[in-house]
Amino acid sequence: MNQQSEERSYISDEIVTHMTHNKVLAFKDKLNAAPFTDYARIHAQGDAGEDGRRIYSTIGIFINDFSKGKGENSVVAEANISPAQARYIFWRTQAGFGGFEGQIFASTKIFGNPDQYGYCQVRKLSITRKTKDNNGKEMKSPWWVVVENGVGIKDFNSNGGSYMRSGSFKSHRMVFASLTDEDFYCYMSRVVAYIDLWEISNGIPLIKAGRAALEKARAEYAAEQANNPQGSQSSGTNGNYGHSNNYAPPPQQSHSQPPAQQGGQAQQTRQSSNHPQQSGNIMTLEQSRAVFVNFGKHNGKTLGQLEAEKFSELDWYVSKYHGNNEAVRSGAGIIIAAHNQKKAS
Asked: Which terminus of the chain, N or C, has less C-beta within 10 A?
């Protein structure tokens, strides 16, 4: 492949790039849509992918410092911010600079599995406006974006959240970039404008698909309840017509509030739908066929559709899927078992 064709085939995910003679600061598109079964979120928030890894929707911030040389001699560090955090940072710049000084944003994120010494990956980000240097001289580029990567020990709080143990951080690399007021404002403006456009272009089809599936599931549940009201209450679902990992919510007895807004009840349904066998009940074959796949290449399809179209691929969800969607894994196993039983008979 010649150089001209290489240039034509190159596609960049950089929203905006700031370059100096020895540094590059880039804001990159790392946005991902929520599964249609959680369509109202629009952005992914730790949803399971095909390989079991969590998927998030973020803007990546990368700084490459090649002041000591390029290639192996350069230092690269990265951090991520959520779309909401990007808007917050931009809002702070819109508030007017005036005499404002100090740190406007700071984030420390610890993630991944611990190594043999108990350390996990850590990314730190801070954004500060400092108008004078240590000698009191006015600075032409008062905005400082600092990214630091290293490791730390992960601890957990009572709610299951994680944080870095105090004093455990070990820095591996730290880089920074300085920008003028105008540059920083323009860059954040472009980042937020891109997020707005992404949400419109991806949110419209996502919302349509999610709401259509929700209404369909509600109609199916209402029909089942009308035809067999006793059976629908004791069919083994344990009320699991509930959330992203199983069925859509059932019609409400009162129309004053949609299911997703009924706090404790919605949370209880989410937990039970992740574990269809936790109460000792097992889904029926028909219930298994109604389970939605909310990740990967079959996102948006039911297990029943896969049974009819690509039956052989159901085995992947049983033997190779390591995510947290227990309904998909169990439902696929029930369908496969039913087919094996039919063959045996």
From this structure: C
Contact present, 31 and 49 (Cβ < 8 Å)? no
Pure H helices in the chain: 3-9, 83-94, 181-227, 229-233, 263-274, 285-289, 303-309, 314-319, 326-344
Q: What is the largest CA-CA distance in the chain?
A: 88
**How far is residue 87's CA from residue 14's CA, in Å, rounded to a whole number?**
18
Residue among 145, 148, 147 at smallest CA distance from 172? 148
Q: For the CA atoms of 115, 121, 122, 123, what is the dihedral angle to 10 degrees?
A: 170
Using alpha carbons, list the distances in angstroms from residue 323 to 70, 277, 326, 327.
39, 16, 8, 11
Hey, CA dihedral for 207, 209, 213, 216, is it positive or negative? positive
pLDDT tens-digit readout, 143-166: 999 999 999 999 988 777 788 999
Residues 41/81, Cβ–Cβ less than 8 Å: no
CA 76 remoteness from chain centre: 24
> 185-199, pLDDT tens digit by residue?
999 999 999 999 999
Total Cβ atoms within 10 A of residue 3: 7
Where along the chain do its domains lie?
A: 13-195, 228-344
Task: Give the DSSP H or E segment for 142.
Answer: none
